[in-house]
Each structure stands twice: as structure tokens, then as C-alpha cells.
Design a protein that fits this description.
The chain has 240 residues and is of the alpha+beta class. The chain has a single domain (47-225), classed as Lipoprotein localisation LolA/LolB/LppX (outer membrane lipoprotein receptor (LolB), chain A). The protein has three helices and twelve strands; from the N terminus they run H-H-E-E-E-E-E-H-E-E-E-E-E-E-E. Strands 5-4-3-2-1-12-11-10-9-8-7-6 form a twelve-stranded antiparallel sheet, with helices on one face. The longest helix has 28 residues, at 3-30. It is globular, with a radius of gyration of 23 Å. The protein starts with a helix and ends in a 15-residue tail after the last strand. 20% of the residues are buried.
Length: 240
């Protein structure tokens, strides 16, 4: 006698849960995505003002990132990285595979100091390109800026940067070095909100760096602004 009512209740419960689930998916699917505020939409800025706003008081940046490497459009390697950048021109990269350090490199402009790990020219090129990708406002002496409807276009001796005019976030960058083109694409902006003083700092959490046969996709997982430096940071006690 009780079997039919139990089956009926079970079916009704299933329909109710399914209806609630569909409603939740509909609401969540229609929820607006968080986007950087267009703080500079109606402001006409000069090149000097754009650079001042972008660089703030940043002297050191530290990122924890995943780096996916492709060669000739095929998967080549993946590493986790701790990346430390310091003006002017210093970059310290620690690479990890399966939680074990696989490389420790210090790059100062054209000099590469190999503290540990395999030697390789790709790290020299990747380091220089990564520095230019993150500190894009550096090396803009004698640059000029052109204004379009939605973009600022900054042109210097060997590079061009396109910025979103409303947010001042970089969209893409092209660098020419020794007749070789390096293309950088910026995507997925997120906000740095770890402290009250840093709230409102937006940055692209994904950068795609393409140079020759190699393509590096850098996905930033954590970002630290002007962190305290350790005694082993930027210590060039390695072979060049």
C-alpha cells in the first residue's frame, strides 16, 4: 500500500530539485561578469599621465604563475614559476615541476646567471620578454602616443603598445628586436584586493607571449606588489 505514494513523492521531489537547479543555472548564467571600471573613459590623458597612473609606486612585483610552453603550435612543456621583477631590468625566475625546483635563473638585461638548472637560451629570451610584458611602461623614452576611439597607441623605438582607453589596461604589445617580432596578448583582467592600499589595482591575469617557434602562456595565480626581498633574491652567485 505504501509503495505507490513513495514512488510518487520521490518523483515529485526529483522534479522540484530539477526545477530549482535549472533556475539557479539560469540566474548564475545571466549574472554580470566582473570587469574593470572604466575610470578614464571620458578623460583625455597625456602619455606622461598614462605612464604615471600605470606604474604607480611599483618598484618590485612578485607573481606565482603557471607557464604553458608550445613549440611549433604543439605542446612542449609546462612549469610552475615564482617570478620576481625589480626595476630597472632585473628578473628572478624559479621554475618548479611536480613541486620540485627545476631551474633558478637571474636575468639582468642581457646577462643570465644560472644559479641551478639546465642552461638554455630560451630562458634568456623568455625572461626579457616577460619583463617587457609586465613592466610595459618601462623603456618609453622618446615615445609618442596616438589616440583612437577606444585605444591609446604608444609607439617607441622598437615597440608598440595598445591600451584600453577607459581602463588603461594593456591589450597587446609588439616588440621588434634584431629583426625578430615578439607578440604579447593580454587577457582576463582581475583586481588586486589583498589590502586596502592595493584595492582597485587591476591587471591582466593571462599573457600570451609569442616569439618564433615558441609560445608562452603565463597564467598569474598570485600577485604581490613591492614585497619584502629575501637575501637570496637577485643574488647573482651563479655562472653566467
Amino acid at each position: 500500500m505504501l509503495k505507490k505514494p513513495l514512488k510518487y513523492c520521490s518523483f515529485k521531489t526529483y522534479i522540484s530539485l530539477l526545477t530549482v537547479n535549472c533556475l539557479l543555472l539560469t540566474v548564475l548564467g545571466c549574472a554580470p561578469k566582473v570587469a574593470p571600471p572604466p575610470m578614464y573613459k571620458d578623460i583625455d590623458l597625456s602619455l606622461e599621465e598614462v605612464i604615471t597612473i600605470a606604474r604607480r609606486d611599483i618598484n618590485v612585483l612578485k607573481t606565482v604563475a603557471g607557464v604553458n610552453i608550445e613549440k611549433n603550435d604543439k605542446p612542449y612543456s609546462y612549469v610552475d614559476a615564482s617570478i620576481l621583477l625589480k626595476k630597472p631590468g632585473w628578473l628572478h625566475i624559479r621554475l618548479y615541476k611536480f613541486g620540485i625546483m627545476a631551474g633558478n635563473y637571474l636575468i639582468k638585461e642581457d646577462a643570465v646567471y644560472i644559479i641551478s638548472g639546465k642552461e638554455g637560451s630560451k630562458f634568456r629570451e623568455f625572461g626579457k620578454e616577460l619583463y617587457s610584458s609586465i613592466f610595459w611602461w618601462e623603456d618609453l623614452e622618446n615615445a609618442s602616443m596616438y589616440k583612437e576611439e577606444t585605444e591609446y597607441i604608444i609607439r617607441a623605438k622598437n615597440k608598440e603598445i595598445r591600451l584600453n582607453k577607459a581602463t588603461l589596461l594593456p591589450k597587446n604589445q609588439e616588440i621588434i628586436v634584431y629583426n625578430r617580432k615578439i607578440s604579447i596578448l593580454y587577457d582576463k583582467p582581475v583586481e588586486k584586493v589583498s589590502s586596502a592600499s592595493e584595492s582597485g589595482f587591476w591587471y591582466p591575469s593571462e599573457m600570451k607571449i609569442e616569439s618564433g617557434a615558441y609560445k608562452f602562456t603565463v597564467t598569474v595565480e598570485k600577485l604581490y606588489i613591492n614585497p619584502p626581498l629575501g637575501e637570496n633574491d637577485f643574488n647573482s652567485q651563479g655562472k653566467e
